[in-house]
Amino acid sequence: MGINKINVARGICWIEIPEADLRILCGCPADAVKHLIKRGLILPHEVNGITSETGPNAILLSDLPLQHGNFTNLAEFPVLQMLYKQGMMLPGHPNNTGRKPLILGSSEQVESQLRYIYRGNYGLVSREEITQAGAPPDQAAEMMRLKLKFAFGRIQPTRDFLDSCIIGDDAIEIADGVILRRLQPNVFEFLHQGETATVDLNLLPGETYECPYQLGYRRFEPEYFAVIHSGEGDGWDCYRPCMASIITYQNRVYLIDAGPNIGETMVALGISIDQVDGIFHTHSHDDHFAGLTTLMRSGRRIRYFATPLVRASVAKKFAALMGVLEEHFANFFDICDLDLDIWNDVEGLEVMPVFSPHPVETSFFVFRTRWGESYRTYAHFADIVSMDVLKGMITEQHDAPGLDQQAFETTRLAYMVPVDLKKIDVGGGLIHGEAKDFRDDHSTRILLAHRTGDNTPKEKEIGSSAAFGIVDVLIAGQSDVMRHHAFNYLQAHLSGVPIHDLRMLVNHPITEINPGFIILKEGEEPQEVLLLVSGLVEKIRTRDNVLCSLSAGSLIGLGNTLHNRPSRYTYRTSSFVRVMRLPVGLYSGVLQRNGLLEGMRHASNLRDFLETTNLFNDSLPATTLVHIIDSVAEKRFLPGETIGHEDLQVLNIIRSGLIERAVGDKVIDLLKERDFFGEEGAIFKVPYLSHLRVQEETSVIQIPGELLENVPILRWKLLESYQQRVKQVIYSGDPTRVIVWRDSFSIHIADMDNHHKRLIEIANAIVDQLHINSGVDSLAKSFDALVNFTEYHFAAEEKLMGLYNYPDTGTHSKKHSDLFIQLAEFKEQVLGGNLPEKASFMNFFESWIVRHIFDEDCKYGAFLNGKGVY
Asked: Distance of alpha carbon 653 from its chain centroid, rounded?
């Protein structure tokens, strides 16, 4: 038998080569392990009488960190399955033969995975990091004692228990007689004994990664204070979502954690992402973390509630996974830090995060709100540890790993707090709870969660279970929430319309429509304008590859009414939805009376076009889209023009025409209708890495960056596109043409490597401007960017060295000062009109910063690595 290939799910493939004892999971998006379990590729079995599991022993990573907005490489759970459930790391286990799980992929993605798994294992890795996140020094020392106990006494680099193999430009032997090579980005070929198998990890346009379980549909009814049970399983349960809940309070919607496939959870419940007011986050393990990308695809920054310790741990893991700076996490969320172990007021909902002993920084939450003479309360105990495990960690040696008796008693009392509703992690093992610890709990109702399969008879004597979508109403709601939302949506669409006209419209009926129902077909003439009040609707025209998702606040049928034409799209419900039915004549009359008809026609045409682009086709809130449309400009370019600096400070979406994008003399790609450019200047504030020449008359829609930078879904999509394009320039190509990032440049400190890559990006932009003789003004702006980022980078390096008491900080800082003076002098020469040759600048840059990386930065990198910082 040669190579056995199984297509497991979209973006996931299985390659098995028995003679080489290789079982490779190719592609590992969220819940890859659950897909393998469902396909029978992970099965329970016995080895020498010891129970364990089958499964992969290698992982092939995607070349891209994101596809269609979702993480592509989430190897945390596949690696845990290999190390623990297969027994590859367990002392005395028959499968612990000294062979380590193997990670295959590009150097960038392998390094990213090693850092992300490291943060997933340990969170914050030193007292310095814990104090930097806000903990007092004595508390940081106690937290590190506990962390080291979970880590068996030592924070281990990921390479201690994983092997890696870099897939570069050439074919490579990954096992005896097994050859692997990259045919093109994300497409790989395996060769063994004359047999080949090709694996394509690319998603097609419009495709997404699959959810391994079916959820069905539920009706979402907002209550005054209620808990929707949106996940009761764990990271291994292939039939249920991971432990999570949704709280509704005074018409607001809050998530507790964001596990894999949270988007499918929202659709099943008929809740759009933009209805979510915030997320309360317990910790950074993937079964509570992987769905953050879905929340980043919101039309506004969703509030992120966590303790500073949890937030710092999550930001470091996110940065490692994405290859970005930690502070970028705040670009996608409205950060709301919570104080530990006290009540925090969140607009009337009080929440207390309680320290939970765990390998990574973790809090469980208790929520309460006043009602009658007392409170109604809910406690969410995700990823707690059993009393037996904690008891075994007690030590009175204050410098030894573990916890003292007082810390144990504090945790035990926190577990036992009586509430109206308590959901408890009873997953067992080293880092999960046990139901027996709550046998004497006096809470009104106890739910047992975070496990695979059904509760045992003994557990059923202690607590209840809950099916997906079950709601515990703690305080019933009394208001007409849907009509209130409808009024706000109409007011946003009809700015300036008198209040009596809005009240007239909002007095129309709201009706419910079942999932999968076609509301309006292409070619039909709408008889009503439908205001989507809740739920999700698909907008489809397959012949033009249009598949757009509409969220609450959207108007369906308006454009057809304004232009007196049949519908150009088919509209189909994705969940239970509620719509307000507005007569066509009545709505048109309101527009005409208030002088809005012509403006609405123009806006409708523009909206229809934008929603056909990949950038605007994903549930953008109607109110946000209205604001953007009101502020756009349109511009035309003639053939032969080069796009100038000013036009690269806004986002440009091509409505018609063709533009060539090139670096030096090499054409990278051709931009056509629906493509975009300019996000470097509009959003990321970096010089453009290429130059653009107009090939035929081109019309573009221009959108100011300030309208987009705080819209997470747009920023997220632009980041994905931007990162892919940067790789084309700084990771490959002719090194005599551009400055190329090499693996040897890495100092193995994630943030500083990212800083150095950004310096190379800016330098490459300068090289390209010198190549095309762009002039002093354009070069000045790029040199300003180089100077500003250099100043920021040097300050960040010195702060990091100071935090860990690096002994050569003073000498290193002096060399920074000298380098900064050299850069300032070079800049002055350029601004004085003494333009350097391209080769001259490249020589300066490489001698200026690249030599400094090799000679100096690698020293402090090794020092910090020795302290567990990567």
From this structure: 25
